[in-house]
Amino acid sequence: MPFDLSARLAERRAAHLYRRRPLLDAPQGVRVRVDGEELLAFCNNDYLGLANHPEVIDAFVAGAQRWGVGGGASHLVVGHSAPHHELEEALAVFTRRPRALLMSSGYMANLGTVTALVGQGDTVLEDRLNHASLLDAGLLSGARFSRYLHNDPASLASRLDKATGNTLVVTDGVFSMDGDLANLQALCAQTRQRGGWMMVDDAHGFGCLGAQGGGIVEHYGLGLDDVPVLVGTLGKAFGTAGAFVAGSEELIESLIQFARPYIYTTSQPPAVACATLKSLQLLREEQWRRSHLQQLIKRFRTGAAGLGLQLMDSPTPIQPILVGSSDRALALSAALRERGILVTPIRPPTVPRGTARLRVTLCAAHSEDDVAQLLQALEAALAALPDEEKSHEHH
Ligand SMILES: Cc1ncc(COP(=O)(O)O)c(C=O)c1O
């Protein structure tokens, strides 16, 4: 009997780490039907409310009529179509980089970029709280792989001093499970000083940070020399699907030549690129989405602090409530659900042990009333938890 899968599954269940998939029976949005229940949701990454925007849907439908459905081949064979190309040009303008390359997902963009840039004899240094796709990419690359303390330029500097070969420093722009920003100015300065290259995955910053939604590099005013490798994803604030890498002409040409997850996969449906072109336009032009989101973030943080909840240092729509143990996170999420609110618990190994949390995400499609409803439900849910479940301490 080579595989004892049932023992592995039982172990996961016993540790309160078993995952199940809520079944969504509605378009993505603020009011959804999940597992047969109508719920007010605070857990998707559709930060600007574009996933279900009528103009984005129209662009997608018109794109399918004009270009068909399937990409049909990989980009290097005959799958690179005019909408993909147009989107790449628009993304280069948007990111103020010479070029951009469209990828099928953020996971693949990260895997493809890191593995194309470093290999045996090189070094890859990552924030210890980076997204799983970046950590997997570092391991797969075959380069010497080391993780520095979260957002700590001194910890990065000591590793840079020991680095060999080409050195790639990799960080999330906005940390996906905490919502805090990378300390990019200091990290970039250390990296440049010691001849490394900085790669930023700004999956959660694009659309939300910066006056024009240009993400963390716009927020800090960082150029190509500071961040030569910039990754963004299109399934979050853009509301569609896919990802991109932006940088120099040479970087993009190198990825086309060497990034295996780019080369050996079918291109995304061209209609998705048509939809993304429309959502990019809305994301840039409709500034009110970002300012409304900022209002909601302020309202939530003030209310949650008033309830004594342990928040994180986050100026972004990702507003986790630290709970501690996995069973407490599950209990609080269930208590909210009984009150008509959906907030998913996040448990190890997605976050470090003892830091299970409810990852509240806010979205421009929420109203102030929705946030007030969430706060009321949180107050009632906390009061209803059994005594041992009430502590807000960080275990
Ligand atoms: C920081 C970060 N990078 C990359 C990804 C992966 O992007 P995608 O969903 O497009 O694969 C995610 C989440 O999905 C993320 O949070």
Give the distinct bound molecules. Answer: pyridoxal-5'-phosphate
Unreliable stretches, pLDDT < 50, 5 or more residues? 391-395
Question: Do you know the CATH architecture of the largest domain?
Answer: 3-Layer(aba) Sandwich
* Secondary structure: number of strands: 13
What is the tally of helical segments? 15
Strand content: 15-25%
Instruction: State the helical fraction.
Output: 40-55%
**Alpha-beta content class:** alpha/beta
Main sheet characteristics = 7 strands, mixed
Overall geometric form:
globular
Report the mean per-residue pLDDT as an integer. Answer: 95
Total number of domains:
2
Report the end-to-end length measured between terminal Cα atoms: 38 Å
CATH first level of the largest domain: which class? Alpha Beta
Q: CATH homologous superfamily of the largest domain? A: Type I PLP-dependent aspartate aminotransferase-like (Major domain)
CATH level 3 topology of the largest domain: Aspartate Aminotransferase, domain 2
Rg calculated over all Cα atoms: 21 Å
